[in-house]
Amino acid sequence: MDVLPSQPITFDMLSGALRISTKYEISALREWCIQELRSRWPREIETMGTTSLPHAAEAISLARECDVPDILPAAFYALSVQKWSCLADGGRSHVVLHPSDLRRLIAGREGLQDILVRCIINPLGDALVCSTCRPLIERFWRTKLAPDPMSPWGCWLLRELQQMTPGDAQYYANWCANCAFQHHCAVWDQLRRLKETIPRLFLLT
């Protein structure tokens, strides 16, 4: 469906169109709106970019109002990585969100912080890594996952893990082949488990 193809689609336009199409049962327009929302807050949360950050709180409220529950995990995650102390979320999320969703956001952020701390303290867990490579690989994880105090958002854990999978020649040059393989396995395992856990962290399941 072609909707204003020559103009950028703002969130206000999208939310208005979804409300109208839902109220008057305009199925084609409603489906288009839902697909647009899914492109901004996708099921594959690790693929999100910075375009998913604006209006995340409004997206949660809209999803509740218009029955689009599949964007909720991504929208909650996008909102959770933003630092409210520097108004990265726009400064109105606490007003937009229903109290129960605000509680979900806080619970999810706490859960993500716990996972991040565990990743930094013991990145490799029980992985069979040699004593020479282990401190090098652990340093790599801690460097990649350390939050930037100057950034308007905290550690974007899913994205950082996703970006760690191809490797970085600067670090890999000093790792033996088996330890590099163990690192890859640890990253993919952490990424998989985190993706599966996110709905539960935000009390959505």
Layout of helices and strands:
Layout lengths: L10 H13 L3 H14 L15 H11 L5 H9 L12 H4 L2 H23 L11 H13 L11 H8 L4 H4 L4 H25 L4
Global structural class? mainly alpha
Low-confidence stretches: none
Biggest beta-sheet profile: none
Question: Strand share of the residues?
Answer: under 5%
Distance between the termini: 33 Å
Which terms summarize this structure?
205 residues, mainly alpha, 10 helices, 60% helix
Short description:
The chain has 205 residues and is mostly helical.
Structure notes:
The chain is mainly α. The chain has one domain. The chain is 60% helix and 0% strand. The chain is built from ten helices and no strands. It has helices at 11-23, 27-40, 56-66, 72-80, 93-96, 99-121, 133-145, 157-164, 169-172, 177-201. Helix 3 runs antiparallel to helix 4, helix 6 runs antiparallel to helix 7 (133-145) and helix 8 (157-164) packs antiparallel against helix 10. The two termini are 33 Å apart. The mean pLDDT is 90.
